[in-house]
Amino acid sequence: MEGASGLGKNILGAAGGCGDWGRFGLDLVAWELRVVGMNCWALVVMLVVLGMAGLRGHQVDSVEFEWKVDEDRWVLEGEMDIAYMLPETRGIPGGQPLSRKAVMAAPAEELARIRVATEKTLRGLMSLEFAGRELAWDVEFPDFEKVPFELPREDMDWALLTARIVMEARPEAGELVVEWMDAAGAELIVLFDGAEGGVVSVQPGGRLTLWKVEDAGNAVAVKRPLAGGWLWSGFRHVVPLGLDHLLFIVGLFLLAPRWRPLLGQSLTFTLAHSITLALAVFEVVTVNGRWVEVFIAFSIAFVGVENLFAKEAGKLRFGLVFVFGLVHGLGFASVLGEKLEQVPRDLLVVPLVGFNVGVELAQVSVLAVAFLLVWPLRKRVDEVRIAGSALVALAGLGWMAERLFF
């Protein structure tokens, strides 16, 4: 069995004659696993993880509505990404929004198609019920009523369309509940105003009580989910959507698979990314998102390579985890900031805290699963560290290349 330095030479030598990072990574990991005699199931697990990563980062989508109550009707109003509403562009990995200018210049037939397709998609995404019975609702598109026709203004020239879901207010007692059924994985975000204001996140398959009416016809306070659903949103951002953040945590595990140093590193990482996440969401700091993604990939590659030479997680590792956590926090902010862009500043605390706690729970869960997978191989911890770290380093280098040049 070669040492860490020998493996490093093999990596560099093979990389010089191979232009396909994905195939090279699979071949190298398979070779390493044959050398150390790992179980077949462990090989399958590691290859599946690499295949899922596909040398791509994560993409998180959301649909946002504001809840409004008029005298005789209930309303959910928001701006929809037209590309996400159309069947030919919806749910495409890495798909780009349509151009606002191009859509506004489209012929009347195409605009009519967009209108019909958007309503059809919305009806497939959600259902509404009151007092346990399905509630009828209409969809209005106020942008089409403008003369001349105009879509909402957007700095990045994204094509957004205002949609208004309208329900007739019911006088009898009952609860108005929305069920979110997005198979593409987007979460529903609802902004509430007034004394019971707040912003709530609903994951696919989830339900949310929007309004409650008593026997006398009076509305009463509705109990919101703990942390507004943001805890699960943060968890889901790492597992299963955040494969780059997941691999960073795996890289920390491989060097020191013991609970005490791992929990310390995980908490250090969470503290750091909480700082920059809050600063970015409150717009205290702004950075170029492309370079943030590049440095996130660099952090993954660095941890993987360091694991090949280091033997213990010393003070330097904790310092690096904190620095890299600051960078990852800016990456989290690029996602969470878009979701909370229309939310008043005084309502941001609950989403921020819930999201961060969810991320920490996801990290601890990843570590727990890693312990279970490695436990049968505990007598070969060095071999596991070398093979796994090589995989992590290759994934990070692949992401760096993709984010720099593609």
Question: Briefly, what is this?
Answer:
The chain is of the alpha+beta class and 406 residues long. The protein is 52% helix and 15% strand. The protein is built from 13 helices and ten strands.
Give the SSE order as H and E letters. HHHEEHHHEEEEEEEEHHHHHHH
Give the strand content.
15-25%
Shape: globular
User: Which strand order do you get reading across the main beta sheet?
Assistant: 5-6-2-1-8-9
Number of discrete helical segments: 13
Label the structural class: alpha+beta
Distance between the termini: 37 Å
Q: How big is the Rg?
A: 24 Å
Number of domains: 2
Assembly annotation = single chain
How is this structure best described in words?
The chain is an alpha+beta fold and 406 residues long. It folds into 2 domains: 167 residues, no CATH class; 164 residues, no CATH class. The protein is 52% helix and 15% strand. The strands form 2 sheets. Strands 5-6-2-1-8-9 form a 6-stranded mixed β-sheet. The N terminus is likely disordered.
